[in-house]
Amino acid sequence: MNVTLRQLRAFSAVARTKSFTQAANMLHVTQPALSLIINVLESQLGVCLIDRHAAGNRLSKIGEEFYPLVSRILSDIDRALNDINDLKLLERGTLRMAVPQVMASTLIPRIISRFRADYGKIHVDVIDCPVEEVSNRIMYGDAEIGIGPFQNETQDLRADLLFEQSFRLAASEGCDLLSKKRINWRDLEGYPMIIMGGQFANQLILDVHELIGKPISYSIQEVSFMSTAFGLVESGAGVTVYLPYASALVKMHNLQTRKIYPDLKNRFYIYSDKNRDMSPASKKFSEYAHNYMSECSESRLSSSWNL
């Protein structure tokens, strides 16, 4: 049995109007064509849906029971099609994204604010998590997109470069390291370095070694969150390195910052599942994120924009 939407809409129109002529006009078909559609439907179902009489047409007993079911089916389909159209036009929907904790409290709210100004009916659900969990959140379906630094295990993820920023030093006022005219990565060897542990710490050490071409031995204290690192640095427990998008937290802890030589950058990407098409909402948000970052220089991120 292969009942079509066209047949159901034809039956519904006749049932509503009780007239083949009016129903044909509604559907923009000829009356003979409409009669054929109904005849084929009845043949496929093996029942009579409409009793035809010289005095008029009326639903058969089976037709009376079938009509409410057809009405609900057509209503559900029309609602689903409207929902799809709303999603396509960004008139509704939810976007779930996984973002590192510091970024979720600094940079991302600014981008969301701009996005919602134009697409206020799209709900953006931010999943703040450790850096190394961003890719897993996408792979397990918790998030549609994620933002994070380069990761080696991303063969199933689509990676779109969003921005790159240079690492900077953050230290408490009075730290003698700040008196140097030019601070290089080797200068940090003599100070406790408080940084996020796990993937971030390992990648940073590898990148510094590759950058300067010599082994460096840092005294590292690993923490789970950059906010903890900033708090400890404020207390004088050591120094840390950060990226300008976290400058609001640096300012909140009254820390002094300096550029570190040679320049070492970290790249951040928008990740999504290669095996799934991105929704209209995620595509548009990615576009807004790119536009926002293209307008922001590192100096603006760390000063006038208070990021």
CATH topology value of the largest domain: D-Maltodextrin-Binding Protein, domain 2
Helix content: 40-55%
Mean pLDDT: 90
Low-confidence stretches: 303-307
How widely separated are the two ends? 62 Å
**Shape field:** rod-shaped
Q: Domains counted in the coordinates: how many?
A: 3
- N-to-C order of helices and strands: HHHEEHEHHEHEEEEEHEHEHEEHH
Number of strands: 13
CATH architecture of the largest domain: 3-Layer(aba) Sandwich
Tell me briefly what this model is.
By secondary structure, the chain is α/β, with parallel strands linked by helices.
What does this structure look like?
The protein is of the alpha/beta class. The protein has three domains: 84 residues, Arc Repressor Mutant, subunit A (Orthogonal Bundle); 103 residues, D-Maltodextrin-Binding Protein, domain 2; 96 residues, Periplasmic binding protein-like II (D-Maltodextrin-Binding Protein, domain 2), CATH 3.40.190.10. It is 45% helix and 24% strand. The chain is rod-shaped and about 105 Å long.
